[in-house]
User: Which sequence fits this backbone?
């Protein structure tokens, strides 16, 4: 049994742990709150991942450390880099490789569509720069490292602009508003597909030193909202576009929504994610949109 270490027990980290455990690996899931494991091959360990010595000890004999942790959205600059740096340092000491979860923030507002992995890193936001700098520091280390980048998440427990602002209200038959071009195609990544891509990348010798895109489904916000309501047995969506001024007003009283303002550009135009390299090299395909939405609806 290969030893694998997962840092972060959110939807992606938990799915990654389950996939590896189901494949027969010995998995150690590291999080601030351990909880109880429901899988015989998964050991949950309560640990602050910024503590390099403790993380190194937890990673002894590990093949790969999977960096799936994510601090609160409004604390990225202060809390994200120390976790990533600690993961890389622990990997250097233990001899493990590192597989990181990231997203399309690294390409910046002026990036062409479709987005490909060959695009330069040109972040135009605070959170995009945090993501890009973490990847660049990891690549500059002595560790073998790979990264997978997804779009907006769907699935049980997934956190995204749609699942935060629109989905709960639409399922309740209420009107919802999003700061988005409601009819522009947008990339939706299933948390399970993120995990499958991460595991496949970690198992491929072609991955080290490069990034892969998560195979995703493309649909407008209106299309996703309509199908979500159909699957949930809710009335047809009453969906309107939230203005920039409305979003900024909400942000003045909500620290998480304040952070969304700089990322709203991703919904102002088409956001298409080219994952053909992932499909060709890693053999991962996107789950259907209906399956993503059923998991989003049925996971509550």
Assistant:
């Amino acid at each position: 049994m290969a030893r694998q270490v997962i840092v972060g027990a959110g939807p992606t980290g938990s799915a990654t742990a389950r996939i590896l455990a189901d494949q027969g690996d010995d998995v150690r899931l590291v999080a601030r709150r351990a909880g109880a494991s429901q899988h015989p091959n998964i050991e949950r360990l309560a640990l602050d991942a910024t503590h390099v010595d403790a993380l190194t000890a937890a990673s002894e004999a590990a093949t790969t450390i999977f960096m799936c942790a994510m601090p609160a959205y409004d604390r990225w600059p202060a809390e994200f880099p120390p976790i990533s740096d600690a993961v890389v340092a622990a990997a250097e000491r233990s001899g493990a490789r590192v597989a990181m979860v990231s997203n399309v923030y690294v390409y910046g507002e002026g990036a062409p569509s479709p987005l490909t992995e060959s695009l330069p890193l040109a972040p135009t936001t605070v959170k995009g720069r945090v993501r890009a700098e973490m990847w660049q520091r990891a690549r500059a280390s002595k560790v073998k490292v790979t990264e997978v980048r997804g779009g907006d998440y769907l699935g049980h427990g997934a956190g995204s602009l749609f699942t935060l602002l629109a989905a709960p209200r639409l399922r309740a038959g209420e009107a919802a508003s999003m700061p988005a071009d409601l009819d522009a195609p947008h990339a939706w990544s299933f948390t399970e597909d993120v995990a499958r891509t991460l595991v496949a990348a970690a198992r491929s010798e072609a991955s080290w030193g490069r990034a892969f895109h998560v195979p995703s489904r493309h649909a407008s916000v209106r299309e996703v909202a309509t199908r979500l309501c159909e699957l949930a047995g809710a009335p047809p969506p009453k969906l309107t576009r939230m203005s920039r001024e409305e979003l900024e007003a909400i942000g003045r009283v909500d620290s998480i929504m304040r952070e969304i303002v700089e990322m709203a550009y991703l919904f102002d135009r088409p956001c298409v994610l080219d994952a053909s390299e992932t499909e060709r090299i890693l053999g991962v395909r996107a789950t259907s949109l209906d399956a993503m939405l059923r998991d989003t609806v049925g996971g509550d």
